[in-house]
């Protein structure tokens, strides 16, 4: 039986992640209180408004339990705002900052790509994802008021970068190396993406995440995690094709 995956459900795109898990035949549950983390096999921290999510997590006294869960070595994936939470350091925050879970040895710029109006979709190169999960060597990434990783530690594996259009200035141009910024990483049991895979029909990032933990090793060859990345089951929510 597949272990249960928790999705932090304080605010943001948690329903979309739960819908993808259902498509893959994996049980997902909402996490709103510390006790909801008990007996989970993995955890997804979704995108949303990071300051609001942090305030709600503080209200429910979730931060100590979330940090403990990260230390268990079980897979934890942060998308967009979730990436910010997992970072050891965040810059570009509002006055007073926000509490972080930490564990991912990187520095994240909280609002690197600008306002909601500057959200965009683009193809990014994902060689490691394609090698592990098959499918095309690119992924259609959806960036919504997205963060970016400015620095990554030596133990952090870079899975994807975003290449800036020639001649297009950015607010963090001086921090870029060779016109690129990091948008997806893995460090041991932690996965972070600056974009929203749960808003697309391509389930490879979810499959990649589900195979990160020892609890899925024997299940990796089952139909729920099989090679058909373009599978079309019941779609619970709108997705980008």
Write a brief structural summary:
With 241 residues, the chain is α/β, with parallel strands linked by helices. It has six helices and twelve strands. It has one domain: Rossmann fold.
Shape field: globular
- Reading the helices and strands in chain order gives EHEEHHEHEEEHEEEEEH
User: Under CATH, the topology is which?
Assistant: Rossmann fold
Relative strand content = 25-35%
What percent of the residues sit in helical stretches (DSSP H or I)?
10-25%
Q: Do you know the CATH architecture?
A: 3-Layer(aba) Sandwich
The CATH class assignment is Alpha Beta
Secondary structure tally: strands: 12
Q: Which regions are unreliable across 5 or more consecutive residues at pLDDT < 50?
A: 215-241
Mean of residue pLDDT values? 83
Tally of DSSP helical segments: 6
Instruction: Give the number of domains.
Output: 1
Over the alpha carbons, how many angstroms does the gyration radius reach? 17 Å
GO molecular function: glutaminase activity; lyase activity
Binding site for L-glutamine: 48-50, 110, 144-145
InterPro entries: Class_I_gatase-like, PdxT/SNO, PdxT/SNO_CS
Catalytic activity: L-glutamine + H2O = L-glutamate + NH4(+)
